[in-house]
Specification:
7 helices, Tetracycline Repressor, domain 2, globular, single chain, about 60% helix, mainly alpha
Length: about 150
């Protein structure tokens, strides 16, 4: 068992309510279901990530390597929002559909954002941006002392 990957679990509604020091039923005053709560959080965190990378690209020097700028912003956001990052990209639970899926899919926003990095190959740019930077962030989270052990 120890040699098998362990999923990052999404917190239950009860554990969220307990951390907020409210009854689980109190959540239903604001959202109709646990899935809606998770969806709202996912939407907010995807939006935060996209806004951070967009802002970095908007403020980049004209001669800057846009893939590097976007990647650095992605890593900075991930390190500033470790729980959100793990929820979005490392959760072992199947995440619910988000409200944003009524419009563009949240992960599709990363591809849309990558159009600003490489307009001719946005999917390839998004894939390179995510896989390379995700690897860096995962290494930091799993090897925080930098020793690789």
């Amino acid at each position: 068992m120890l040699a098998q990957p362990q999923p990052v679990a999404v917190p239950s509604l009860r554990s969220i309510a307990r951390a907020c020091r409210v009854a689980p039923s109190a959540v239903y005053w604001h959202l109709p279901s646990e899935a809606d709560l998770r969806s709202a959080v996912l939407d907010a965190e995807y939006t935060s990530l996209i806004e951070a990378v967009s802002a970095a690209l908007d403020n980049a020097a004209a001669d800057a390597d846009r893939l590097v700028v976007a990647g650095d912003a992605y890593i900075a956001w991930a390190l500033e929002h470790p729980g959100a990052y793990q929820l979005l990209f490392e959760s072992g639970d199947e995440l619910p559909s988000t409200r944003a899926e009524k419009g563009p899919h949240p992960q599709g926003r990363i591809v849309d954002l990558a159009r600003h990095v490489d307009p001719d190959a946005p999917f390839a740019a998004a894939l390179l941006l995510w896989t390379a930077r995700h690897g860096v962030v995962s290494c930091v989270y799993t090897r925080p002392n930098g020793t690789g052990a």
